[in-house]
Amino acid sequence: MCSNAVAEFAKWSLKQMSDTEIRENPSNIKSLLRRIESNSNHPDPFKRLSSVLCLSKILMVVREFDALIDRFCLEIARCVLSSLKQCHNSFEFSQDVIENCSELLQQIQKLIISKADILFKEN
C-alpha cells in the first residue's frame, strides 16, 4: 500500500467527521493504524519498512488534531519501536527500516515535547 494513499485516506476520513466524532471515536484512523500495526511486527523487512513509511505519513495527519495526538501518538511510537526491535535479527536487509525508524522517532519525540501538556492531561 502506498504511504501517500494512506495519508490521503486519513485526511479524507477526518474531513468527513465532526470535531466531536474525532475526539470521541476516530474509528477509521483506529482501524487504519491496526492494519498498519500488523506489518510492524512482520519478519519481512520490506513489510516493516512499508509500515514505518505509512506511520510517518499518518503522523503528519494526526499531529493536526490534539485529540488524535492524545490517543495515537504513543501507539505510533510503540509500533515504530516494535519494527526497530525486529531489525535486530536480520540486519542485512533492515538498514532502511532502521534509518526510517530513527527519523520517525525523532519526529515523534519533537511532537511529544511540543504537545506534552496534552499528553499529561487526565482522560
Q: What can you see in these coordinates?
A:
The protein is an all-alpha fold. It has one domain. The chain has helices at residues 3-15, 19-24, 27-40, 45-62, 66-86, 95-114, 116-120. Helix 3 (27-40) packs parallel to helix 5 (66-86) and helix 4 (45-62) runs parallel beside helix 6 (95-114). The longest helix has 21 residues, at 66-86. It is globular. The N and C termini lie far apart (34 Å).
Short description:
This protein is 79% helix and 0% strand.
Topology:
Elements: H1 3-15, H2 19-24, H3 27-40, H4 45-62, H5 66-86, H6 95-114, H7 116-120
Total helical segments: 7
Strand content: under 5%
Query: What coarse outline follows from CA principal-axis ratios?
Result: globular
Average pLDDT confidence is: 89
What is the radius of gyration?
Answer: 14 Å
Largest sheet at a glance? none
| N→C terminal distance | 34 Å
Number of strands: 0
Features:
mainly alpha, globular, 7 helices, 123 residues
